[in-house]
Specification:
Blueprint lengths: L2 H16 L3 H13 L1 H32 L1 H24 L16 H7 L4 H14 L5 H30 L6 H17 L2 H4 L1
Helix pairs in contact: 1-7, 2-3, 2-7, 2-8, 3-5, 3-6, 3-7, 4-8
Subcellular location: Cell membrane
InterPro entries: LeuE-type (IPR001123)
Membrane topology: Multi-pass membrane protein
């Protein structure tokens, strides 16, 4: 891969990682409701989960899904249902999570990592990156370079959303503002399903 192609890949990885989508809306809400530190496992789960998805797609999973459209359809339905469940959970949250509070909790590392495998935006990002940037001359190295580029920019990009949420935490300490913020985040998260329904 040429240096120009790698730079283009980094730009693609950055833009797709930092723009709104299910992960970033959930991190914004988590930053508000639980603070930055308690959201770290969620952020790391996104990074590792997406990295494994990229490697899976790059090393053949994308071809399997193309060959078996029903499997792809089932994945979309499962992902959509889980996304709606998460949107409902965020929308119904009514208080800022405090340390030691058992009922409300941020997403765990494993939950966030597993979510990447049913996240519609993550699939589009992974399949597009592999289709556009994989070199036929060195496919194995290309997959590793693409995965490395995303690993480099993904965590800082998604972390900025949790950081912004933490900044809003003081303003949203008011229960009425927090209620409407969480409802709005839940609706935005549900709206990310729209492209999948087309």
């Amino acid at each position: 891969m040429s240096s120009e192609a790698f730079l283009a890949l980094l730009v693609y990885a950055f833009v797709t990682s930092i723009t709104p989508g299910p992960n970033n809306f959930m991190l914004l809400a988590s930053g508000v409701n639980f603070g930055f530190v308690r959201t770290i496992p969620h952020m790391l789960g996104i990074g590792i989960g997406f990295l494994t998805l990229l490697l899976g797609v790059g090393f053949g999973l994308g071809a399997v899904l193309s060959a078996f459209p029903m499997l792809h359809g089932g994945l979309k339905i499962a992902g959509g249902a889980y996304l709606l469940y998460l949107a409902w959970r965020i929308g119904m949250s009514r208080s800022l999570g405090k340390d030691g509070e058992a009922q409300a909790r941020p997403m765990t590392f494993l939950e966030a990592a597993a979510f990447q495998w049913v996240n519609p935006k993550a699939w589009v990002m992974a399949v597009t990156a592999m289709a556009v940037y994989t070199s036929p001359e060195s496919p194995f190295l290309s997959v590793l370079l693409i995965s490395g580029a995303f690993a480099l920019v993904n965590l800082p990009s998604v972390s900025s959303w949790a950081g912004f949420g933490m900044v809003l935490r003081g303003f949203l300490a008011d229960p009425v503002r927090l209620k409407w913020f969480n409802i709005g985040m839940g609706l935005l998260l549900a709206a990310t399903l729209w492209p999948m329904l087309k």
